[in-house]
């Protein structure tokens, strides 16, 4: 194992997504220790590291994430901050929402909202994110059992976007986003209390109904704020799919043979295309953890409480797992399955959905991306000349131009 004796915070911020993997490549290792914010951190990369990180025994999420990030994303008390029996019980609630039928319904609602947005007259030239985010928000509300009249969908879309876009920012931008989030939490808690008071009756099995009535491992109802936090952990990730939709559009523009195939109805490679979008393009760069109990791995002794960060982006670009990783090749995912390769494509976590911390929202991401790719491929929209490159020192990143389309 390699040790970098100086603080690497500035290098991490300057280099961005490739920081971890570039150090691992230079040292010929899958782990190294350095300091971030003057605190020692051990970085891990690769499938074996992902299996270790997500096996539920070696790492904990409690106290792992900086407060500025945790409060903006999952927040305290959420499923991602739990371990053991508490995590398993809460995770089952999320998994109950991700049945094949529920995914189909979410995709159908997304298409309905997309078609509704397309009917509204607007500027001929549009930024894709400005179109997709409100569509995703309205679809998410309906799918979660929240009546549209009980939400300001336009403002909610903006608030959820701030939670995603400012996660790695500090100071006033982060404080403002967290302030906006608190308002959304209060709104969601009021919905939960309305369900418990029987003044609002969401469809059984929807997110609002499930979390309003969910009990913890002691048989107690979640307090309204925690139930609200988990409801946002359904809505926010759906909005975050807009980042993948933008990158999917970039892939269709830069590799037009795939758009032609999908437009012609040849969708044999639709899922492989979507999976390659998730692998190839940057999403969230890494995930933090804390060591639960002492152990030794690859010659390095981990002590209880040690800070560890798993490289998501670098693992998805590991040439040992994905030959020619810097090439966009959807065919690599033909015949591929999560069950056979749980620790390779880890853009949204590793391990198994039913047993580990792997994000169950992957299924909704894939469903929504497949629908978006199909809709974009079959539309008459065209892409003018623009800058579709993206910065690797911005978290999360997106195309510089935002993906501008004519006639969307």
Distance between the termini: 51 Å
Oligomer: single chain
Q: What are the secondary-structure elements, in order, as H or E? A: EHHEEHEHHHEHHHHHHHEEEEHHE
| Spatial sequence of strands, sheet with the most strands | 1-2-3-9-6-4
What is the CA-atom radius of gyration, in angstroms?
21 Å
Give keywords.
408 residues, alpha+beta, six-stranded mixed beta sheet, two-stranded antiparallel sheet, 15 helices, 48% helix, 11% strand, globular
Report what the structure shows:
- It is globular, with a radius of gyration of 21 Å.
- The strands form three sheets. It has a six-stranded mixed beta sheet with strand order 1-2-3-9-6-4, with helices on both faces. It has a two-stranded antiparallel ribbon with strand order 5-10.
- With 408 residues, it is of the alpha+beta class.
- α9 (172-196) packs across α11.
- Helix content is 48%, strand content 11%.
- It has helices at 9-15, 19-27, 47-54, 67-70, 84-96, 100-119, 128-143, 153-165, 172-196, 207-213, 224-254, 256-263, 270-280, 312-316, 362-378; strands at residues 2-7, 31-36, 39-44, 59-60, 125-127, 286-291, 295-297, 300-302, 307-311, 404-406.
- The protein starts with a strand and ends with a strand.
- β2 and β3 (39-44) form a beta hairpin.
Gist?
The chain has 408 residues and is an alpha+beta fold. The protein has helices spanning 9-15, 19-27, 47-54, 67-70, 84-96, 100-119, 128-143, 153-165, 172-196, 207-213, 224-254, 256-263, 270-280, 312-316, 362-378, and strands at 2-7, 31-36, 39-44, 59-60, 125-127, 286-291, 295-297, 300-302, 307-311, 404-406.
């Amino acid at each position: 194992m390699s040790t970098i004796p100086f603080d690497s915070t500035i290098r991490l911020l300057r280099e961005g997504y490739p920081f971890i993997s570039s150090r691992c490549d230079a040292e010929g290792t899958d782990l190294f220790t350095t300091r971030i914010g003057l605190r020692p951190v051990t970085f891990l990369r690769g499938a074996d590291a992902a299996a270790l990180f997500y096996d539920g025994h070696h790492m904990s999420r409690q106290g792992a994430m900086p407060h500025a990030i945790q409060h903006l994303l999952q927040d305290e008390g959420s499923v991602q901050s739990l371990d053991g029996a508490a995590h398993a019980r809460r995770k089952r609630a999320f998994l109950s929402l991700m049945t094949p039928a529920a995914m189909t319904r979410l995709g159908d609602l997304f298409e309905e909202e997309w078609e509704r947005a397309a009917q509204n007259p607007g500027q001929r030239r549009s930024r894709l994110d400005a179109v997709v985010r409100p569509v995703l928000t309205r679809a998410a509300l309906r799918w979660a059992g929240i009546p549209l009249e009980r939400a300001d969908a336009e403002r909610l879309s903006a608030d959820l976007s701030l939670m995603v876009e400012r996660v790695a920012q500090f100071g006033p931008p982060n404080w403002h986003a967290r302030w906006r989030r608190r308002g959304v939490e209060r709104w969601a808690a009021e919905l939960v209390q309305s369900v418990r008071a029987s003044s609002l009756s969401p469809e059984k099995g929807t997110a609002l109904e499930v979390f309003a009535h969910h009990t913890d491992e002691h048989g107690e109802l979640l307090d309204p704020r925690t139930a609200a936090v988990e409801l946002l952990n359904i809505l926010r990730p759906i909005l975050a799919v807009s980042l993948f939709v933008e990158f999917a559009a970039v892939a269709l523009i830069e590799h037009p043979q795939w758009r032609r195939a999908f437009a012609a109805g040849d969708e044999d490679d639709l899922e492989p295309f979507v999976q390659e979008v998730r692998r190839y393009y940057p999403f969230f760069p890494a995930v933090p953890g804390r060591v639960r109990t002492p152990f030794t791995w690859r010659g390095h002794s981990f002590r209880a409480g040690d800070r560890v960060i798993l490289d998501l982006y670098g693992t998805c670009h590991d040439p040992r797992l994905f030959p020619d990783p810097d090439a966009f090749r959807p065919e690599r995912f033909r015949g591929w399955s999560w069950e056979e390769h749980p620790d390779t494509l880890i853009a949204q976590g590793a391990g198994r959905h039913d047993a580990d911390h792997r994000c169950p929202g992957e299924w909704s991401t894939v469903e929504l991306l497949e629908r978006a790719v199909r809709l974009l491929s079959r539309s008459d929209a065209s892409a003018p000349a623009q800058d579709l490159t993206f910065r690797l020192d911005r978290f999360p990143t997106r195309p510089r131009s935002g993906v501008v389309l004519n006639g969307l």
